[in-house]
Amino acid sequence: MLQAPSKYQHFIDNVAVAAASGESIAVVDPSDGSVFAQLARGTAADIDKAVIAARRAADGVWGKTTPVERGRILARWGLLVADAVAELGALESRDTGKPLRQGLADANALARYFEFYGGAADKLHGQTIPYQNGYTVLTIREPHGVTGHIIPWNYPMQIFGRSVGAALAAGNACVVKPAEDACLSLIRVAELGAQAGLPPGALNIVTGLGSEAGQALADHPGIDHISFTGSPETGKRVAQSAAAHHCPVTLELGGKSPQIVFEDADLDAALPVLVNAIIQNCGQTCSAGSRVLIAAGIYDRLVGLLAERFQALRVGPSTSDLDLGPLINEKQLHRVREYLSAAQAGGLEIAASGSVLPDVPGGGFYQAPALLASVPSDNLLFQQEVFGPVLVATRFQDEAQALALANDSPYGLVAGVWTRDGARQMRMARGIRTGQVFLNNYGAGGGVELPFGGVKQSGYGREKGFEALYGFTTLKTIAMRHD
Ligand code: NAD
């Protein structure tokens, strides 16, 4: 088993810094419930220190670093992460409980984010605008200054990469508050950033509880932009706190994403993707495909095929690298079980479920994946984000009903459409209210290059791709009169 350090401190001004309170948070291994490390418990005093360091960097060395040099630092950082994939992947896997290969995939994705944003740093430019005679008007994109990043526990490295990678490429100095449940990899990633050449203060990490360090970051008047990924309730609170000092926010708040399968779909291609979209990371993925909408003519057949796949799924400790690992913590396990109990109490039946290995450690947070069929659209399981390995199947009669069901959700993050009919693909893609639509695929393997974000309760603003750089900059218009 990986020998991780037992104590993790904040990372401010390129050095490890102890919590001002002197207190720590126990880090639990979701695979067995054991405490294997301690994390600095940050408070407002630590956030203040990090914001001061970031401001100094933004106004100083980092602010004067040219885009090409910022890009080179990010590119070097990506290479260092790529060299450390085995270490980072194992740490992420232990900290989150995800199967080892998913931890390794996350580390590789992080390297790719730095590579992508390293390449983009010197390609972000403004425009000239035709105006009256005797004027030249141009726009330039400037960094916000100091950006805050509140990161959840499900994909610490990937979400750090997409948000901090873009913010740094655009020239911001960052203060990051990762989730208390899983963030160890990020401390190591920050050390690699310093090694790659990030000057002190460009990147600062304060660990701690959401209600303490997270709230202090959202409240801090020295923060110029906040990027938040997490639950709709906390997102609302963060946006309200930021509004008190007119700080813009980007919110990525999860989803209840539909996969819509028509009669003419290639089921052989669709089936493994439908299953993976809900079991990856034990369903704790904002873009999980948690609703499958199936045309009446193939409903029974596809539900039967899904049931066969679900019955073969196995759940075990992160190191056993099975189909699913444990959930992140006791609270999440309880939440998923409550949803399943409520559904069963309301008359729904579990059509198929996978199995937890019989010899898993007693203290782990294991939940077998479940498939529920014929779930009506007014059921809680159809409407609410479970954030666990629970897939609901619902039948539709025609395209109009498929679209209506897809949009019958408070969320709007991602959708998948499976059909060979090109005109129908485009009608559905245009009609669905989400930030991304995938036609005959789902998730595009993470898609570092693809703008990502939601509508409705899934949030607003876009991360990933080149588009993210616009969100991490502010546009200045310069009008020069020269007649
Ligand atoms: P959360 O939204 O409370 O936490 C996300 C991040 O926000 C963490 O870093 C947390 O420390 C921080 N935070 C919490 N309270 C804060 C506050 N008052 N001010 C500033 N930051 C604060 O999510 P959770 O409690 O860890 O999980 C609850 C549910 O959220 C899950 O069941 C799931 O539905 C959803 N979730 C979604 C995503 C996603 O990717 N969209 C990720 C994690 C959780």
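qc> The first strand starts at residue 7 and ends at 8.
qc> done
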